[in-house]
Fold this protein.
Amino acid sequence: MMKRLQKILSDFGIASRRKAEELIKEGRVTVNGEIAHLGQKADPEKDYIKVDGKLLIRPEPKVYYAFYKPRKVITSLIDPQGRPTIKNFLKGIKFRVYPVGRLDYDSEGLLILTNDGELAYRIMHPSSEIEKTYLVKVDGIIEPETIEKLRKGIKIEGKLAVPVSVNFVKKLKANSWIRITLHEGRKRQIRKMLEKVGHPVIRLIRVSIDGIKLGELKPGQYRALTKEEVEELKKRAGLIKKSQK
């Protein structure tokens, strides 16, 4: 779409329209290798526009997605061993996104995908205390006293791992489902905790991250986060003040 150069420079955040006019008058703007003139129009999608010899590149918009990582899929964009990665499922997303945090190869459920590096860093930092909730199918019928033991914390590799909450969900013929919420996320923490109490994990699904829910997503599907979900994440990460609307 053809637009006046001063508007293009303003849209790209280079300068105000008035200042952009001055840049054009001073001969500091070129279009397809030729010095631009005031009143000239260009198409920012097709023409090569430079200011002081630097090509204008529109910054990618920040995007945020909830993704259901299937089992037997690597939480990575590339795997040297040739195993399936989450990239196989993201072909409909126009921008390069990366996962916030991880889920191991045998686990499934909610991942947040974004190209917002600052938010990703803040969420993954231990000080953010982002709550993550998991539904876990375990071997055997788990007794109330074992649930209580998990609530009080299990020592893993010399350090006590204390969940935010542990709740019984339902009993099957030979297995049980429980719900566990964590602040921290040490590698294979839930699996190690349950192995310690004699109930190895059969299936592990992350169902929410700080209020963002897996919902109706099926393995391999994704959806864009709502504006409200993004704002809540940013508040938790300290990028928006909680009183700010």
The radius of gyration is 25 Å.
